[in-house]
């Protein structure tokens, strides 16, 4: 089983959107028994909450389920438990690197998986209000990530 954890700040906007989008893609490809998907936040303010209404609205618009997703804070054990840990921005990545204390081989930015993008970070829609921009980056990043996993696992 390959495991993927998406990480943002609050775990109510960007990373739960990525969790829902990626899980949907994985299911469409019939890989749900082979890939486990989760998300978490570096902050703990929203623990137990469902995704932000902006994230819920955009997922609904694109026909992607999000039932059952609840916010939680990332913990040290996650760094051991997950094969691919995908940060939404540089602050999230620095937080994870500090938490890891040593060189961690499986930390990435979502934008690492988007070919030819000018974006390095996924802008935080909690402040920008632009959930459509996030959806476009998240879907492109998730597509690239899934292709990478399939290559690395020899599934293609
Ligand atoms: P997210 O957005 O990291 O994409 O979930 C945020 C959500 C909540 C807060 C910040 C960012 N907050 O400060 O409560």
Strand ordering within the main sheet: 2-1-3-4
- Compute the average pLDDT: 97
Reported by name, the CATH topology is Rossmann fold
**How much of the residues is beta strand, in percent?**
5-15%
Question: Which consecutive residue ranges, at least 5 long each, have pLDDT under 50?
Answer: none
Largest sheet: 4 strands, parallel
Helix coverage percent of residues?
40-55%
User: Can you identify the CATH superfamily?
Assistant: Response regulator
Number of structural domains: 1
In short:
This protein is α/β, with parallel strands linked by helices. It is built from six helices and four strands, in the order E-H-E-H-H-E-H-E-H-H. The relative contact order is 0.21.
How does the SSE layout of this entry go?
Blueprint lengths: L1 E7 L5 H15 L6 E7 L11 H9 L14 H6 L2 E4 L2 H11 L6 E3 L15 H4 L2 H23 L3
Parallel strand pairs: 1-2, 1-3, 3-4
Helix pairs in contact: 1-6
The structure holds 4-nitrophenyl phosphate.
The site of 4-nitrophenyl phosphate has 11 residues, from loops.
Q: How would you portray this structure in words?
A:
- With 156 residues, the protein is an alpha/beta fold.
- It has a single domain (2-153), classed as Rossmann fold (3-Layer(aba) Sandwich), CATH 3.40.50.2300.
- It is 44% helix and 13% strand.
- The chain has six helices and four strands, in the order E-H-E-H-H-E-H-E-H-H.
- It has helices at residues 14-28, 53-61, 76-81, 90-100, 125-128, 131-153, and strands at residues 2-8, 35-41, 84-87, 107-109.
- Strands 2-1-3-4 form a four-stranded parallel sheet, with helices on both faces.
- Helix 1 packs across helix 6 (131-153).
- It is globular, with a radius of gyration of 14 Å.
- The two termini are 16 Å apart.
- Residues 8-14, 41, 45, 124, 126 line the site of 4-nitrophenyl phosphate (4NP).
């Amino acid at each position: 089983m390959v495991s993927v954890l998406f990480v943002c700040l609050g775990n109510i906007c960007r990373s739960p959107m990525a969790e829902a989008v990626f899980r949907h893609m994985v299911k469409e490809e019939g890989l749900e028994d082979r890939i486990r998907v989760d998300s978490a936040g570096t902050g703990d303010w929203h623990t137990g909450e469902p995704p932000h209404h902006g994230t819920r609205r955009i997922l609904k618009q694109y026909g992607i389920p999000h039932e059952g997703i609840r916010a939680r804070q990332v913990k040290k054990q996650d760094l051991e438990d997950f094969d691919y840990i995908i940060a939404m921005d540089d602050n999230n990545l620095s937080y994870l690197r500090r938490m890891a204390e040593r060189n961690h081989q499986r930390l990435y930015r979502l934008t690492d998986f988007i070919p030819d993008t000018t974006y390095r970070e996924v802008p935080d829609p909690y402040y920008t209000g632009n959930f459509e921009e996030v959806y476009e980056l998240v879907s492109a990043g998730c597509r690239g990530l899934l292709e990478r996993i399939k290559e690395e696992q020899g599934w293609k």
